[in-house]
């Protein structure tokens, strides 16, 4: 009987010691996880503080201002609720601006993507002087947009511009270009594409050079044509780059301002007035910050929706190795 009691006591001591060890281990793990969380927070803070100060807080405060009637000058303002948004969505000018923005975005996106890809395919050769050509084509991207826009405004000047001089040599009638409501947006699109096509080309060059050569060799043995190689090998394997460039170019198009301000100032007759330029006019010409921040908030939401749509659609055509 005593032996049995001793065995039971020993078993209880063993169980209690195991429990105490488990408790110690769990405490150590908890402290280790907490220390890891603190370390991760310390690593995040240097990047999060400027992000919060210069992006999150201004965006939240801008959204708040969109519910006010602040005129950008006086220290006092009133809360007007959804009045700015109601006025925005009931304005005919807003829908005209939205149409201009869509026209400009599509008009710059397609030529920039297609042209950048074609240039990359053309310059993806190991020949003398190719580096010089690549540098020349890329150079507009590193040139300030204001400087580029001034040069192109001279080219499209209706009276003494280079564009009309070429038309004159070809015995064609002169055009008003940036002074014509039907051609002004085309001018802005040409300037934007010319500036961005070299940047797109550089990304495509890098992507094309990373495509395994073995795939081209195998397709050559199978008798594939050049177009079949591009369609079945090159384009699918560089689709992540295409996806990235589409998103960036769409965002850049929505944020275009400099070339519009320099060449047309949103005219003639509002034909080149985009959403961002509408924000500028409301904020710094009409001093209606409530209306302007409502436009800015709409632009942020529109950009997020377009990016989300592209991410969802990309699952059907983007291939990751």
Concise summary:
With 321 residues, the chain is mainly alpha-helical. 75% of the residues lie in helices and 0% in strands.
Verbal overview:
With 321 residues, the protein is mainly alpha-helical. It has 2 domains: 1-53; 83-314, Orthogonal Bundle (MetI-like fold). 75% of the residues lie in helices and 0% in strands. It is flat and about 75 Å long. The chain starts with a helix and ends in a 7-residue tail after the last helix.
Rg (C-alpha, Å): 30 Å
CATH topology tier name of the largest domain: MetI-like fold
How many domains?
Answer: 2
Helix content: over 70%
> Averaging pLDDT over every residue, what do you get?
86
**Which CATH architecture of the largest domain is right?**
Orthogonal Bundle
Q: What's the tally of helices?
A: 13
| Terminus-to-terminus distance | 72 Å
Report the β-strand fraction as a percent range. under 5%
Q: Any low-confidence stretches, pLDDT <50, length ≥5? A: none
* Alpha-beta content class: mainly alpha
H/E element sequence: HHHHHHHHHHHHH
